[in-house]
Amino acid sequence: MYGTRPVDQAQPVPRPRTSRKARGPLPWLVALAVVFAAVQLAFVVPGSGLAWDETVYVSQVGGNAPPAFFSAPRARGISYLVAPVATLTASTTALRIYLALVSAVALAVALWIWRKVLPTPVLVGAGGLFAGLWPTLYYGPAAMPNLWCALGALAAAGWVMRALSGEAAVRTAAAGAGAAVALVALMRPADGFWLALPLTLATLLVPGRRRPGLCAAPAGGLVAGCAPWTAEAYAHYGGLGTRLHRAGEIQGGLGWNFAVDDHLRSLAGRTLCRPCDIGWENPATAVWWVALPLLAAGGVVAARRAGRGLVALSATAVGVSMAVPYLFLVEYAAPRFLLPAYALLAVPVAEYLVSLLARARHARRPGGTAALALVLAAHLGVQFSVLSHVVRTSHATSAGFAAVAGALNRMGVRPPCVVSGDDAVPIAYYAGCASRQTEGHDASITPDALRGLARRVPTAVLVPGNAPPPPVTSGARTVPLPSGHGPHQARLLPGPAEDGTEAGRRSG
Questions:
Q1: What are the pLDDT digits (tens) for 268-321?
Q2: How confident is the model at residue 380 (pLDDT cuts 50, 70, 90)?
Q3: Which is it for strands 459-463 and 489-492: parallel, antiparallel or unpaired?
Q4: Of 46, 148, 363, 471, whose CB has the highest number of CB atoms within 10 Å?
């Protein structure tokens, strides 16, 4: 008895090991975040301009122009996120650097939440797989909501998994999950719904782990995150039902729409495929996407053998839930829509790949390890190839917008000013003007009101090359625009814009 006593007391060795294991992922996650930020800063940020949707979000809180029309489907979460920089400077580079750094930190934090339910190799592998996708890298420094929905969904699912696994206090997990769901709903209310639904079901269906507080957290987060959008619906759109109906119209009508093939084609580098009636330009870019369901299923099996079946299965279910509306309810595709699904499905895929690597090492088969490394290297090569193509295309597009905006400024369309017509929203932002449309999704002014406005401030209507001029431009002067992306002519409505052109011609 006494001989064994000192041995028992000298046994606090497991505790230090446990704490070291808990701290184990941190250096890896920090390294992952540094690499993620560095790639964005090196390959995506330099020379980039704001895209169409970004100009809408940024203009709400500052930037280079008055607020653009905010259509019914949009939510203001991303505008709140960019406000600290956009209110201080109109520099796109400053905004990009800020978003790149914040997104890298957010990725590490979202993964850190999972540290109690996933071993370090799986945790870091999941983060690396998600961070290595070209849509993740491209939208990291972008003023767009989808990556933030992905990181919020990853964090929310992590908190719920920790609570269901008994690795976190219910109150702490409920608060974390509710806050993360609120972030997602603030960015995109529909994504918040498709996230809260499976998380709530998980808290109800897992036997022996039902906790009222945890069950209510996703729903509470959804309500809190949707509150600004709902309040705005009553203040500016005639009510919640009216805004939902209008949002559905703008998105082409929500219903059964099989868009799986559209997403396959968009992976070649189409940031928006609407309508997606293009050919499948490069099938190699979608090989990983086709393999994703099989890899995720293999990961669930591997995780179950390792005693983590609940975690992998739940992550898969949440990822599938967030993919459903974009694959089957929306009639067009954009790779960014599926970022939340990719973030969650990376967990079971990492489980599978880590199990393959472990088996290859256990069997002492270096050929298997080398083959897996080659496959992953090829995958990353494809992702960076598409990323470089998307970056070049977006740079050319924003340069075209800037060229047209510069031409308008030289014509006398300078702030305060108004731009309407083809590609008016981004071009107006670059020109420092307000954008006002007389028709379409962003209709915010009548033709008569636009002509009346033109008598007070310089106003231009942009018209594509072969399109007939709209009736509002009757009697307007036609001015050619720089060739390249975007409209080919501007119609300067009678008023200061036309007077400025006449003065410029006489002085020339």
A1: 999 998 888 877 778 899 999 999 999 999 999 999 999 999 999 999 999 999
A2: very high
A3: antiparallel
A4: 148
Please give the single-letter amino acid code of residue 355: S
DSSP of 394-455: HHHHHHHHHHHHHHHHHTT--SS-EEEETTHHHHHHHHT-EE-BSSSTTB-S-HHHHHHHHT
Contact 461, 485 (CB under 8 A): no
Q: Which amino acid is at 172?
A: T
SS (H, E, C) 314-344: HHHHHHHHHHHHHHHCCCCECHHHHHHHHHH
Beta-carbon contacts of 106 under 8 Å, excluding residues fewer than 6 positions away, are: 148, 151
The CB-side HSE value for 216 (13 A sphere, CA atoms) comes to: 4
The count of other CB atoms within 10 Å of the CB of residue 115 is 20
Q: Do 67 and 435 contact (CB within 8 A), yes or no?
A: no
Nearby residues of 297 by Cβ (< 8 Å), 6 or more positions away: 348
Instruction: Specify whether the CB–CB gap between 215 and 222 falls below 8 A.
Output: no
Residue 459: strand, helix, or coil: strand
Q: Which two tokens stand for residue 36?
A: 């993620």
Q: Quote the CA–CA distance of 29 and 106 in Å, as a whole number.
A: 11
* 420 neighbors 450 (Cβ within 8 angstroms): yes
3-state SS, residue 490 = strand
Closest CA to 388 of 16, 48, 154: 48
Query: How far is it between the farthest Cα atoms of the chain?
Result: 109
139: left (phi over 0), alpha (psi -120 to 50) or beta: alpha
* DSSP per residue, 199-263: HHHHHHHSTT---HHHHHHHHHHHHHHHHHHHHHHHHHSSSHHHHHHHHHHHTT--S----HHHH
| pLDDT tens for each residue of 165-180 | 888 888 999 999 999 9
DSSP label of 273: B
Length of the chain: 508
Please give the Cα distance from 192 to 80 (Å, whole number). Answer: 17
